[in-house]
Amino acid sequence: MFSKIKTCATTKEIWESEGSDETKENKLTVAQQKYESIKMKDDETMTEFDERFSAIIIELNSLGKEFSNRELVLKVMRALPREWDVKTMAMRESKDLKKMELHDMFENLKAYEFELETRSEAGPSTSQPTKALAATTAEPCSPSTSKSADQLSDDVMSLFVKKFGKYLRRSFNPSTSFNNYNKSDKVSSELKCYNCDRPGHFAADCNRPKRDDRYKRDDRRADD
């Protein structure tokens, strides 16, 4: 395909060199699907990703599809793994994406990848940029800092256990339930019925004759 494109001076000539309209449309559809779904692989270097991405763009250009600098730059940023977010965010803040060339962006990313690999303390330089980036973006903790973090975690867990245990003791302590039961009996024994003057129940629960009825019977007996 590239040998054909090199001999074509204009986009029209490139388009015509690709064959029939149906063939061109099929090629364009496939190339667009590649463009939309492209993602940098975990075991891929930035150079390898650059070559793969650029090949798709060249193919789309040959089929008449054009992109602005900003579109291409943003597409590359979105195709990178999450470990590259810090770098791409910095580039968005400091660069004019409309003026940034795709080649310049990849050179910037390759330089950053190289710096990460040389600074990595994980051993020999690795061919996996995402692993090198993950190893260097996480701030190393000193032994004292790590110890403090572990101690804090232990303290939090200890506090949780204490509070939860206290809650369980309050909710399910048999002695508490027994004391509440005895307290209820004590209160009940101190009650005095208004109707019969006997302790242990209310007048509404009294099964003896009502006081007013007793008074009426006594009055009738007095009249007799």
Which terms would index this structure?
zinc-finger; disordered N terminus; 11 helices; 224 residues; Phytoalexin-deficient 4-2 protein; zinc ion binding; mainly alpha; metal-binding
Structural summary, described in words:
- With 224 residues, the chain is mainly α.
- The chain has 2 domains: 2-137, no CATH class; 186-224, no CATH class.
- 68% of the residues lie in helices and 0% in strands.
- The chain contains 11 helices and no strands.
- The protein has helices at residues 2-6, 11-17, 21-37, 46-62, 69-79, 85-94, 102-119, 129-137, 143-172, 174-189, 211-223.
- The longest helix is centred in the C-terminal third of the chain and has 30 residues, at 143-172.
- The chain is elongated and about 120 Å long.
- The termini are far apart.
- The relative contact order is 0.06.
- The model is unreliable at 1-7 and 135-149 (pLDDT under 50).
